[in-house]
Amino acid sequence: MQTIAVLMTCHNRRETTIACLDALFGSDPLHDASLEVFLVDDGSIDGTAEAVKKCYPEVHLILGDGNLFWNRGMHLAFERAMQIGFDAYLWLNDDTMLRRQAIQNLLQTKLSESGGEAIVTGAVCDHDTGNSTYGGARYLDPVFRPFLCEVVLPNGLPQEVDVINGNVVLIPNSIARKLGNIDPVFEHGMGDTDYAMRARKLDVKILITADYVGTCSVNGTEGTYRDKNLSLKARISQLFSRKGRPFRSWFVMCWRHGGWLWPIHFIWGYMKIIIGRY
């Protein structure tokens, strides 16, 4: 019997979080695996923590102060789980609704690699349209990684990818120990991309599932630095916010993975917003 720690973080979307847990615990029975959930509730004021305690008292609930955001919340959940030790760790976004055979598909994809030594990212699609939303991508050019990639769509077989979205990601313990935790230098986003980049530098394989394992809508752009209806001043303000491209996080991403062109990647990441190219 292998043990799997499910790692989640949430903030102020009680119904969505409970629906995600409903889908997870409603998965087809696993005869050779058991699940334990580590959920960071990052300062929710909408009763999320209370609802989780009532509906799923077996969940390891970790309370944040509202300043962790996604990446640092996942870092905390990962840290707590690794202190106990599991055979595998499953990142799961609380807005991702797993299909009944999702966990089995992730495990089967892992086993498709010799020895099961691979990270597996689950492909997810939009609930209404069926269009692919999150999963993995492949480098188009090694010089411009991870800034120039093509999305990989499921084709009925596991495929290798270089970049992942953190919605549904299964990490074997051996790889988790090799790579360590998500880097908390990243405040909200980018930590999943960095994790994949670090894995590929160590020749760790990353596979995307043969089929979709769940549904998740694409994050909207309204009110973000990508919203062209906002004034330039407002967009720049959002660009440097914790949910945009905070200076230190973006610097580390470019410096760590941008190769000798990292200063250009760093500057262009901001300039394309300012000059209206993004």
Unreliable residue stretches: none
CATH architecture of the largest domain: Alpha-Beta Complex
Strand fraction equals 25-35%
Count structural domains.
2
**CATH topology-level name of the largest domain:** Spore Coat Polysaccharide Biosynthesis Protein SpsA, Chain A
Largest sheet: 10 strands, mixed
Number of strands: 13
What is the 3D form? Answer: globular
Total of DSSP H or I helical runs spanning 4+ residues: 9
Output the radius of gyration. Answer: 18 Å
How helix-rich are the residues, as a percent range? 25-40%
Give the H and E element order: EHEHEHEEHEEEEEEEHHEHHH
CATH class of the largest domain: Alpha Beta
How would you name the CATH homologous superfamily of the largest domain? Spore Coat Polysaccharide Biosynthesis Protein SpsA, Chain A
Distance between the termini: 48 Å
User: What does the average pLDDT come to?
Assistant: 93
Sheet/helix structural class: alpha/beta
As an assembly, this protein is: single chain
Structure description:
This protein is α/β, with parallel strands linked by helices. It folds into two domains: 2-215, Alpha-Beta Complex (Spore Coat Polysaccharide Biosynthesis Protein SpsA, Chain A), CATH 3.90.550.10; 232-274, no CATH class. The chain has helices at 14-25, 48-55, 69-84, 102-112, 173-179, 191-201, 232-239, 247-257, 262-274; strands spanning 2-10, 33-42, 60-64, 88-92, 97-98, 118-125, 132-134, 136-139, 149-152, 159-160, 163-164, 168-172, 205-215. The strands form two sheets. Strands 1, 2, 3, 4, 5, 6, 7, 10, 12 and 13 form a ten-stranded mixed beta sheet that branches. Strands 9-8-11 form a three-stranded antiparallel beta sheet. Strand 6 and strand 7 (132-134) form a beta hairpin. Helix 1 (14-25) runs parallel beside helix 2 (48-55) and helix 8 crosses helix 9 (262-274). The longest helix has 16 residues, at 69-84. The model has no long low-confidence stretch (mean pLDDT 93).
